[in-house]
Design brief:
Strand order of the largest sheet: 3-4-2-5-1-6-7-8-13
Structural class: alpha/beta
Oligomer: single chain
Mean pLDDT: 93
Number of strands: 13
Shape: globular
Strand content: 15-25%
């Protein structure tokens, strides 16, 4: 089901709604902490690297997972993705096939991950790992997209991605705030934090985490992953249904696009023909090019108005890049975790 976080989650301090939901948040937080305290029930034959986040909503964990996969592949290693397939119809472990699966089948994130490596979609992570062997998938390391709070599978290294602009919102636990469990509880299960934002975001968040976390806090940011020469001075109607659409819109502006309009949808939003038709009509009225993310594009249907929107819209591929020496720091920690498993 598409997720749209309440705007008051990202207020600096808990407001009336957050305070009213505090009792429910206390219960949710206690249950989450109890679950996370459980020992893993299964250890995979391959090392498991988990890329997760502390909050509900998008932070950039999937782009980071793809960046790590690219780095590992460059080292002649074979990564395999394991993901729950948020928003998909999957109920049993399913190996993604780009030729026959769509976003409704396996989820939009799984389709993006499958461009970088093999992907197993499974709501039950342990069952997914076991299914990899059943499908004869040989690999060197499992990249678990999401699952920081999931205790079922033993993890060799856990990386948490934080949105630099939103950070931890009002500091509350679901439903009074965006945190999936109390921050110290989650940090106890985390080895590395990657801040997706500006350098000053990284410094601010590192200072906030210092009382509970002594591991590395690294800096990353989005960047275009292809040709952008078509964007400067191009009049654009941008639309996005991702965790932080504002980041996408600002990147378009930084690349020189003239934004005639911005249309936001819930994360993982399933577009309708009526919405597709409205977007095309609005773009025509504004004399603007329709531009969206790859994650949104893969959710568009192949018939009717959605197929027309597919033909009309252009995507801006985005990658996550580690800044300065932080990429080397991250890969050194990953290499250490892999070597420790194999020693």
């Amino acid at each position: 089901m598409p997720f749209r976080e309440p705007s008051w989650w990202n207020e600096p301090q808990p407001g009336f709604a957050a305070r009213a939901l505090a009792p429910a948040a206390w219960v949710y937080g206690r249950l989450a902490a109890r679950r996370m305290a459980q020992g893993p029930r299964y250890s995979a034959a391959l090392p498991v690297l988990c890329i997760g986040n502390f909050t509900a909503g998008g932070t950039g964990k999937t782009p980071l997972a793809m960046w790590i996969a690219g780095q590992l592949t460059a080292q002649n290693l074979s990564p395999v993705f394991l993901t729950r397939g948020y928003g998909s119809a999957v109920r049993a472990p399913t190996l993604v096939d780009l030729e026959r699966h769509g976003a409704a089948d396996v989820g939009d994130e799984a389709l993006l991950l499958a461009r970088a490596a093999r992907v197993m979609v499974s709501p039950d992570r342990v069952a997914g790992v076991k299914a990899l062997a059943g499908h004869g998938i040989a690999g060197d390391v499992i990249l678990m997209d999401d699952g920081l709070q999931n205790p079922g599978l033993s993890k060799d290294l856990t990386i948490a991605v934080v949105d630099g602009a939103r950070a931890f919102g009002n500091g509350g636990v679901i439903p009074s705030g965006p945190l999936r469990a109390a921050l110290p509880v989650q940090l106890a299960k985390t080895d590395i934090v990657v801040v997706n934002g500006r350098r000053e975001d990284r410094d601010r968040i590192a200072a906030h985490l210092a009382p509970w976390f002594s591991g590395p806090v690294l800096s990353a940011g989005p960047e275009p992953a292809g040709d952008t020469s078509w964007l400067p001075r191009q009049r654009v109607l941008a639309f996005a249904g991702i965790g932080n659409p504002q980041r996408f819109f600002r990147l378009l502006e930084q690349l020189g696009a003239a934004l005639a309009g911005e249309r936001r949808f819930a994360d993982h939003h399933a577009f309708t023909d009526a919405e597709a038709a409205r977007l095309m009509a609005e773009a025509d009225k504004l004399g603007a090019m329709l531009v969206t993310t790859e994650k949104d594009f893969v959710r568009l249907g192949r018939t009717g108005a959605q197929a027309d929107l597919r033909r009309a819209a252009r995507t801006l591929p985005i990658a996550l890049s580690l800044r300065g020496d932080d990429g080397a720091v991250l890969m050194a920690r990953i290499t250490g975790a892999l070597n420790k498993r194999h020693s």
